[in-house]
């Protein structure tokens, strides 16, 4: 499950555009700030932990604006929202949605550019880029999900590895070799066995190097050095037997993390959900640090996942939905409530950090140190990592559908059936032919 970034993503997106409003024809005007909002809206959030978090946060909005009624509904958004946007029936006023799939539904969303304009200087550059499609802001940016390196402190220390030395991916390989020398059964580095998550994961590594599947001009750039560096490194982990091939938070993954054969997990901040809620024997033994860099002095983080809030073009009360999201994202009262203590996360929501820069004071944490990380102050680690995320990343409309090609081919690499160059060349050809058309 995606914790902080949402529940498990599904591949796809909304390729077809239905008749009606588009981002080009339905810009949402500035709300009248002098008139107290009143009315009724329906808001969709995912089932599970985040629904409960937002339910409490929405209560802080209705307490402030008692004349607004919010029907807060838990749904399988990735399954339901695209079809609802196409049909135009039962469209919510606002919904939580994964950044990786935003571009696919952009034609069916309100253009929020005028409303977001005043906040642009205070939004993390990476996130602002993600929610901007064809020059229009189509979503209210919510979280930032910086990549971190999670590790078993007890095993790493016993092996004589200094976590502070893990500054490059070559150093991480050396550390994995050292751990295995001490514990021959160890396969220390996580290798993701889910096609979709592996694609998202590798994009984090590419983003860390300033790369992406497409450039700013929309042309395919997957067959490039950032991806080649990643796949070459992963192939080395595989060929040396230094990796545990497992699906994120599935039984094999959890078992090997608990028994100490899987020791290093370079992943998004939302991995922290596992030691808090799922792991047993190793709870309290995990720690987090910055990702290694691909080259000395390079960025020590990248983004893996993330979500934003969308307002459908056919929403009945889009202005009220905007007022709600403005409260949750851009007001101190709102984001403090979102990330503060709740029944799911007693110490506060710690699976992501806000993308709103004024909220990212390293000395004013929104969530408490985490017992499942041995009392570590993850807030400072995550905020510092968030500052290093490169901007300029573009998500193509076909990103989810590329899993059928790139995601599948990556799994062949991890099974020893394809080389890095074969994965990139084959994937580029398949994506260009099947998803992009003639160049």
TrEMBL record:
It is found in: Cell envelope. Pfam families: SBP_bac_1. Keywords: Signal, Transport. It comes from the Bacteria. Belongs to the bacterial solute-binding protein 1 family. This is Sugar ABC transporter substrate-binding protein.
């Amino acid at each position: 499950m995606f914790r902080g970034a949402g529940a498990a993503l599904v591949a796809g997106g909304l390729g077809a555009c239905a008749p009606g409003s588009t981002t080009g024809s339905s810009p949402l005007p500035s709300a009248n700030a002098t008139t107290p909002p009143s009315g009724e809206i329906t808001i969709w959030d995912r089932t599970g932990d985040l629904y409960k978090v937002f339910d409490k946060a929405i209560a802080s909005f209705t307490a402030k604006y008692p004349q607004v009624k919010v029907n807060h509904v838990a749904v399988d958004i990735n399954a339901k929202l695209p079809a609802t946007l196409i049909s135009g029936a039962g469209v919510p006023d606002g919904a939580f949605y994964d950044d990786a799939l935003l571009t696919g539904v952009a034609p069916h969303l309100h253009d929020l550019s005028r409303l977001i304009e005043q906040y642009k200087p205070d939004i993390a550059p990476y996130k602002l880029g993600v929610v901007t499609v064809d020059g229009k802001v189509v979503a209210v940016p919510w979280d930032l999900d910086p990549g971190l390196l999670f590790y078993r402190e007890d095993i790493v220390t016993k092996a004589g590895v200094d976590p502070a030395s893990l500054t490059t991916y070559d150093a991480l390989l050396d550390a994995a070799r050292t751990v295995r020398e001490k514990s021959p059964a160890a396969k220390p580095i996580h290798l993701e066995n889910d096609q979709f998550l592996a694609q998202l994961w590798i994009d984090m590594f590419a983003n860390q190097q300033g790369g992406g599947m497409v450039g700013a001009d929309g042309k395919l750039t997957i067959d490039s050095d950032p991806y080649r560096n990643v796949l070459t490194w992963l192939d080395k982990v595989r060929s040396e037997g230094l990796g545990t091939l497992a699906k994120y938070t599935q039984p094999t993954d959890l078992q090997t993390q608990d028994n100490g054969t899987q020791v290093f997990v370079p992943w998004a901040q939302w991995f922290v959900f596992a030691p808090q809620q799922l792991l047993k024997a190793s709870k309290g033994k995990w720690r987090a640090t910055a990702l290694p860099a691909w080259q000395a002095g390079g960025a020590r983080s990248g983004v893996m996942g993330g979500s934003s809030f969308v307002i459908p073009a056919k929403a009945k009360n889009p202005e009220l939905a905007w007022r709600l999201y403005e409260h949750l994202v851009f007001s101190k009262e709102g984001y403090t409530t979102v990330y503060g203590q709740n029944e799911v996360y007693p110490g506060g929501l710690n699976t992501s950090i806000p993308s709103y820069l004024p909220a990212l004071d390293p000395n004013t944490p929104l969530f408490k140190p985490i017992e499942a990380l041995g009392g570590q102050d993850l807030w400072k680690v995550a905020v510092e990592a968030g500052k290093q995320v490169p901007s300029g990343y573009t998500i193509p409309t076909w990103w989810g559908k590329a899993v059928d090609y790139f995601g599948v081919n990556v799994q062949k690499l991890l099974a020893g059936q394809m080389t890095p160059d074969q994965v990139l060349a084959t994937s580029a050809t398949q994506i260009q032919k099947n998803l992009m058309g003639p160049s």
